[in-house]
Q: What sequence folds into this?
């Protein structure tokens, strides 16, 4: 029998790509989403891509304990991938209670219910934001976590710690009744791009905070001009360096991590992996690569630095490469072409 994976936040940007790759890999997937930051576009896209109309979908809020408990009673869940969280850094600074309540309570519910229903494998979607402005680059999983600079970033650190503690506390439980929780935290660098089918991708609400959706919306004419935040940083071209990871590659890393848990291959009951390409790319390089691969000119200007941005961060991917047997494969050009194809799909072009 195929193992069953619950994807919370499965109708969102990363969750929808992960759902596709899990199904392609032969897993049964149950999607839970409260639709607070997406519509059905991506879930419909997922069904088209995999050619299935029968993917169980629960429109529930993971902050609702009873609803999560009911889902686990109805479905025999072997692993959970938890995406359901708010993710806007600036909004989290303005509305910390909303962020702490949502991101912590939903994860606590997932963990409590996982433990109650005989134990589970839990994969948490964490972020390279936990490293802050790292002293040594690239960052390894052993690099120190620095104090978070936003409530959003803090919820990522706190959820990692909660997972670690629940794994430790439940290690001795046998699986009848309450059971052990095993955990993996994946620390993503900068996910970008879309599925090659252009049927799923990022759907920002309002003005995008992230670079690539701002680029594609500028190219399609939805935004007038891209501001490149800061060109006086101590880097070669003066703009910030990031590790842009293709969303399909990122999704495949989740499949590798889930398989590792379900196949009993974990070396510790709680593990952490960086998920990136290992290649630093500057904002300016990304913008010019987008222009070149898609054969267009982007309206952009240099603007002041954005408060809170780190100068440079990229991943040491050795651990993920060796232990998960996973490696980022798509080139940044392919990824930027896919982002543009998705924006055009949205515009009906
Ligand atoms: N950025 C930019 N203009 C934008 C959005 C982002 O120049 O409209 C820059 C931002 O300053 C950072 C990089 O692009 O150096 C990546 O930003 P993003 O918000 O996508 O991800 P972050 O690394 O902040 O999580």
A:
């Amino acid at each position: 029998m195929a193992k069953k994976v619950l994807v919370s936040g499965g109708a969102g940007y990363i969750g929808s790509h992960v759902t596709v790759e899990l199904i392609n890999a032969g897993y049964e997937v149950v999607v839970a989403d409260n639709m607070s930051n997406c519509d059905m576009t991506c879930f419909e896209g997922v069904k088209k891509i995999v050619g299935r109309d029968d993917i169980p979908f629960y429109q529930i809020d993971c902050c609702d304990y009873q609803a999560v408990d009911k889902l686990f009673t109805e479905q025999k869940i072997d692993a959970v991938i938890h995406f359901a969280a708010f993710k806007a850094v600036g909004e989290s600074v303005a509305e910390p209670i909303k962020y702490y309540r949502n991101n912590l309570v939903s994860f606590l519910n997932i963990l409590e219910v996982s433990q109650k229903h005989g134990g589970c494998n839990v994969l948490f979607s964490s972020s390279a934001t936990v490293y802050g402005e790292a002293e040594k680059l690239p960052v390894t999983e052993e690099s120190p976590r620095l104090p978070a600079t936003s409530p959003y970033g803090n919820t990522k650190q706190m959820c990692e710690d909660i997972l670690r503690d629940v794994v430790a506390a439940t290690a001795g439980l046998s699986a009848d009744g309450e059971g052990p929780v095993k955990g993996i935290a994946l620390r993503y660098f900068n996910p970008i791009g879309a599925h090659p089918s252009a049927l799923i991708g990022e759907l920002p609400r309002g003005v995008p905070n992230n670079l690539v959706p701002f680029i594609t919306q500028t190219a399609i004419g939805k935004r007038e001009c891209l501001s490149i935040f800061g060109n006086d940083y101590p880097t070669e071209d003066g703009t910030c360096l990031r590790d842009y990871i293709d969303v399909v590659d990122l999704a495949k890393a989740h499949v590798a991590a889930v398989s590792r848990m379900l196949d009993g291959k974990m070396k510790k009951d709680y593990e952490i992996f960086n998920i990136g390409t290992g290649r630093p790319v500057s904002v300016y390089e990304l913008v010019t690569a987008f222009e070149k691969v898609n054969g267009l000119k982007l309206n952009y200007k240099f603007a002041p630095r954005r408060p809170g941005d780190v100068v440079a961060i990229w991943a040491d991917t050795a651990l993920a490469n060796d232990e998960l047997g996973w490696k980022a494969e798509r080139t940044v050009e392919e990824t930027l072409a896919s982002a543009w194809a998705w924006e055009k799909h949205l515009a009906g072009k």
